[in-house]
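Q: Here's a chain of 429 amino acids. Please give me its 3D structure as C-alpha cells.
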Amino acid sequence: MVLGLGGSGEAAARLLLEEGAVVTVCDSGTSESIRARALALESSGIASKLGSDADDDENQYDICVISPGIDPETPLVRNIVRKGIPIISEVELAFQECSCPVIAITGTNGKTTTTELTTTILSGSGLRTVACGNIGLPFSTAVRESHELDVIVLEVSSFQLEAVAQFRAHVAVWLNFSPNHLDRYADVDAYRAAKLRIFERQTADDFAIVNADGQLPTLIAQVLTFSATDANADFHFDGRFIRFHGMPIIDFSSTKLTGVHNAENLMAAFAIGHVLDVELDKLAAAALQYIPPAHRCERVRELDGAIWINDSKATTLDAMEKAILSQDRPIILIAGGKNKGFGFEPIIDVIRRRVKRVVLIGEMRNRIAVDWAGVECRCCDSLDEAVVAAREMASSGDAIVFSPGTSSFDMFKSYIERGECFKSLVNAL
C-alpha cells in the first residue's frame, strides 16, 4: 500500500509496480485532482481507494509506503498501525533502489537553495547528478536514472526522515535548526530528533557537513564544519571571502547570492564538493553561474524609491530573521499566515531593532500583533489589502519585505502560489 496521492506517492506507486509489486494507493481526499490521478494510476494497473474507503480499508498488505505530507495521527495511518503493517517512507523505498551515493541535505531553512547550489556546482565541475526529494522531483522518480549518475543530491525534510530504516547518506548536511512544525510534533525535541535521523546509519567512511553552531551529538562520520561566526570552522565566511582553513576561495560579492544565510549555504555546498574530491577553484567557478530560486529574498521591483522583496518561502521565524538582517534599508514587513503552533515572541528584538512598521495577514495576524506589543502593526484581511497598506506606509529608500514567518495553507495552496500572488499584486501597482 502507498499512502497519499501526491507527487511522491504517485512516484512510489509507479516504482513499486515496475519492480513487480501489487500496489494499492490510498488517500483520504476525494477532490477532482485526486480522482483524476487515481484513474491514471488505475489505467496502469495500480488500484486505488479514496475517502472513507481508504480510511477504513480492511485489506492486509506486506508493507506500507507513506508520503511525507501525511500526519501519522490521521485515521488513514492509524488504520495501518492497527493492522501491524510495517511503514516506510518514500525516501526509504527509493534509497533501496538507488545505484549511486546519496548526498542528503536537511535544516530548518536553506535546504532548497543549498540543494540547487550543490547540484549546480557539482554539474559545473563535471559530475553527473540531479536534485530531488523535498525540492520537487520525487526521489522515487530520480532513482530510475541513478545507475547513470555519480551522485544524487537529495533535499530531505523531517517528515521524510520519520520512517527511514536502512537509509544512509554518504554525505549528510545539517544546515541549521530552529523551532518549526509544532503543529505536527509534540515539542521541539521531537522535531529535532526526526531531523537527526539523517546521521543515523552513517559509518566512518561517510561524511557529515555541519554548521559549527549546531551543537550536535557525537557523529560517527567524518565531520567538516562551516560557519559565518566561528573562524576555526573548516569553511568560514569573514564578511567578504569564503575561506577554507584560512585560504580564500571566493569573494562572496562576485556571486548572485546575498545575505549571511546564503554564505552559509554556499559553504555547505563547497564542503560537499570538497569531500567528493572536486578542486575548490572548480567549485568557485561553477558557483558564479548559480541563480537563486524565486520566493527567497527575491527582488520584485522598485517603486517610488522603495524596493519590494518577495520572501514567501520564509515559513519559519529563523527564515524571517535572516531576510530582515539581509537588508540594509529601513523595512516595512508583511508577515503572517497559518498557525503552526509557535508564537512570534522570540523574534521581537529583531523586529524592534530593524523594522519600521508591520502589516499582518492570515490566521496568525491577531496573535502576532499581541506577541509584538509595542510595535506598530496593522492587521489586514487579505494580501491585496496588505500590499496597499505597505505602499502607503513606505517612503523612498525603504524595503517592503514580504516574509511571512509561517506557512501559507490558511490562504494559499503553497508558498509558491502565495509568492506569485504577491509579485502579481506588486507589479500591478
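Q: Can you summarize the key feature?
A: DSSP finds 16 helices and 20 strands in the chain.
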